[in-house]
Amino acid sequence: FMIHSFLKPLFADIKTLCLDTLFPIYCLACEIEGPKFICDACQSKLTPLPHQFCISCHKMSIGGLTHPHCQSPHAADGLISIFDYTDEKVADILIKGKYSFLPDVYKELAALMAKRIKTDFPFLVANSCELAYVPLHTWRQRWRGFNQSKILGEILGKELNLPVVDVLQRKKFTKTQKNLKKEKRIKNVDSAFSLSPLFGKKGVRGGSFILIDDVTTTGSTLSEAVRVLKRNGAQKVICITVARD
Questions:
Q1: What per-residue string of b and e applies to 25-49 under the rule 16 or more CB within 10 Å gives b?
Q2: CA 31/CA 23 separation, integer angstroms
Q3: Closest by alpha carbon to 90, among 105, 111, 79, 102?
Q4: What angle do CA 25, 49, 38 make, to 5 degrees?
Q5: What is the mean pLDDT of residues 38-48?
Q6: Number of neighbours of residue 141 by Cβ within 10 angstroms
Q7: What values do phi and psi take at 34, rounded to 5?
Q8: At what angle do helices 88-99 and 104-120 cross, to 10 degrees?
Q9: CA-CA distance, 239 to 77, in Å (whole number)?
Q10: CA 189, CA 220: separation in Å to the nearest integer?
Q11: What is the separation, in whole angstroms, between the first and last Cα of the chain?
Q12: CB 153 within 8 A of CB 132
């Protein structure tokens, strides 16, 4: 037992040394080598989204809350995005993290999100709620090796002391939304989600959720996921993303 206790951290240190030597970590924004994918200097330079917008009409909204005249039984109650995707540094970090298969990037982004939520959007965690995330299709998750939205949720859960639930599943393989126009985005994600059989309707009914994704443009993916939650009895759903395009 004593030998095992000694060797385990030793092997962990050797593994870290080998990985750092073969695959050194560098800041995805400034490309300077260091211990983080987003160095401290670049963290302070990431452009925050200057205004929040209603998820339904896309006009400015205080706190990202859905306008009263835009509310409907199956619509999100709000959408908050932390950073501005038009900032090249923000876009580079998100794109490289996803397509260079770097899940730890999203852990760092989630920590930054948590700080901003605590200072600028404390109402999000003032009431009892659960964190949910936009799921990937099984095929895409196997190919990528991780779901960036789930990683964001897990770290946010720890930072904000909120439970994370696997409430949704993606039942339809969809095209990447990035290059689609608004009408095709809506059609692409139509009926893409359902409740996870492990969670069940009873767990949704009357509940409040924060739904997490990495980037939003038209809000089509988030709106479709929210629709599933609301149709099954969720009382309140507010969406939050790393960035807005």
A1: eebbbeeeeeeebbbeebbeebeeb
A2: 13
A3: 105
A4: 10
A5: 97
A6: 14
A7: 180, -170
A8: 140
A9: 8
A10: 7
A11: 53
A12: yes
Provide the sign of the torsion angle of the four alpha carbons 185, 61, 85, 156, taken in this order. Answer: negative
Indicate the burial class of 87 (C-beta count within 10 angstroms; 0-12, 13-18, 19 or more): middle
pLDDT digits (tens, 9 = 90+) for 93-119: 999 999 999 999 999 999 999 999 999
Residue 161 Rama label (left phi>0; alpha psi -120 to 50; beta): left
The answer to whether the beta carbons of residues 155 and 189 sit under 8 Å apart is: no
Per-residue pLDDT tens for 155-209? 999 999 999 999 999 998 887 777 677 787 888 788 889 999 877 777 899 999 9
Minimal CA–CA distance to 245: which of 99, 82, 41? 82
Question: Which of the 8 DSSP states describes residue 229?
Answer: H
CA distance linking residue 191 with residue 133, whole number of Å: 17
CA distance 118 to 125: 8
Does this model's pTM top 0.90? My answer is: no
pLDDT at 87 over 90: yes
**Residue 193, SS3?**
strand
Task: Tell how strand 168-170 and strand 193-195 pair up.
Answer: antiparallel
